[in-house]
Amino acid sequence: MQQPEPQSFDRVLSSMCTEPHPAARGAAERFLASNPGDPATYETIAATEERAVELLARLTSHPTPIDATGYVTSGGTEANVQAVRSARNRHDASDVNVVVPESGHFSFHKAAELLDVGLRTVPVDDDYRARTDAVEAAVDASTALVVGVAGSTEYGRVDPIPELTRIAHDAGARMHVDAAWGGFLLPFTGHAWAFDDAAVDTLTIDPHKFGQAPVPAGGLLARDAAAMDALAVDTPYLETRSQATLTGTRSGAGVAGAVAAMEALWPDGYRESAERAADNAAWLADALADRGYQVVEPELPLVAAAVPEREFDALREAGWKVSRTGAGELRVVCMPHVTREALRQFVADLDRIRG
Ligand code: 0PR
């Protein structure tokens, strides 16, 4: 029998994770002891991981999904670290740097520190998107990678990926798109973000976020095999001779859960989730604006609004798991588990708190 979650998702409005699809739970459980890090021994999960990469490649409009390279990471952090590592290893310069908009996830700070790469943080515009003029001014011959965010953590914004890609390539750098959260929403929007929209080199897209897969399941994809080859180290005593992943033993459950979720939901289930989330975000943004709050218009289903600290604290006390942007706004992520009814209750609680 299906066990319930150990903690209810009913009042979770801050998370970028969600309840996994039922089929994904079962699939994950079957592969709890399989290690995709040793594909010559665990052949079934190795084949399942190839399927995961193919499905992710379809979602991101990779030109050759069947031959796409990449793997199921432990999450967006590992995928971003590996993208920086790959670009660094391929870049022929000393004092390598990576150019990241200030809206970039903090995993790039970890990557820069771990890999001893300079981090050049560039400002965003008034609508929280990377400023192309600032990126242009920041790149130089030592820039190994430019990062664009497609679905930013704080405001759900999509950077101008085609322009950033041109700037990166003109400077001799590689282009990475961080669609860790946005990747399962963006195929149903008009945004330019994927492999067919620009000559993007690598891309992060996490099944364990909007993909409704169990944790841990992130994704790193590359346009060309060379990006993954640059990550490979020799593994003399394994039957496979090299390994490109960051971790060694990995979660078979994560891989199997991701495939089961994607097979169940791509594309119609994800489209429905994305549309429902967009409607919910628009509804919440209107409800907050009607009450006089300054709201950041949602682009993807993430609502930020300037709610005073006292009210924010009272919402937390009422059991709502909400979080704040760096600038202090209340932030609500309309994940698949966030229902309209929950949002109505949330707004009713806010009305009660306001008195
Ligand atoms: N890139 C982007 C755009 C992200 O939003 C995140 C995480 C990452 C990379 C890193 O992904 P992993 O956390 O899988 O390594 N975004 C959320 C955040 O840091 C993750 C999160 C998820 C936070 C659930 C809280 C939570 O309850 O805010």
Task: Describe the structure using short key phrases.
single chain, 355 residues, Aspartate Aminotransferase, domain 2, Aspartate Aminotransferase, domain 1, 7-stranded mixed beta sheet, 4-stranded antiparallel beta sheet, globular
Architecture blueprint of SSEs:
Elements lengths: L21 H9 L12 H17 L9 E5 L2 H15 L6 E5 L5 H9 L2 E5 L9 H7 L4 E7 L11 H10 L3 E5 L23 E3 L13 E5 L2 H5 L3 E2 L7 E2 L8 H14 L2 H23 L4 E2 L5 E4 L3 H9 L5 E2 L5 E4 L6 H15 L1
Parallel strand pairs: 2-3, 2-4, 4-5, 5-6
Antiparallel strand pairs: 1-7, 6-7, 8-9, 10-11, 11-13, 12-13
The structure holds ligand 0PR.
The site of ligand 0PR has 16 residues, from helix 3.
Architecture overview:
Helix 2 (43-59) packs across helix 8 (252-265) and helix 9 packs parallel to helix 11. The longest helix has 23 residues, at 268-290. The model has no long low-confidence stretch (mean pLDDT 97). The protein has 11 helices and 13 strands. With 355 residues, the protein is an alpha/beta fold. The strands form 3 sheets. The chain has a 7-stranded mixed beta sheet with strand order 1-7-6-5-4-2-3, sandwiched between helices. The chain has helices spanning 22-30, 43-59, 76-90, 107-115, 132-138, 161-170, 225-229, 252-265, 268-290, 309-317, 340-354, and strands at residues 69-73, 97-101, 118-122, 143-149, 174-178, 202-204, 218-222, 233-234, 242-243, 295-296, 302-305, 323-324, 330-333. A hairpin with a 5-residue loop joins strand 12 (323-324) and strand 13. Helix content is 37%, strand content 14%. It starts with 21 loop residues before the first helix and ends with a helix. The chain has 2 domains: 22-265, Type I PLP-dependent aspartate aminotransferase-like (Major domain) (Aspartate Aminotransferase, domain 2); 268-354, Aspartate Aminotransferase, domain 1 (Alpha-Beta Complex), CATH 3.90.1150.10. It binds ligand 0PR. Residues 15-17, 75-77, 80, 105, 107, 149, 153, 178, 180-181, 206, 218 line the site of ligand 0PR. Ligand 0PR binds at residues 15-17, 75-77, 80, 105, 107, 149, 153, 178, 180-181, 206, 218.
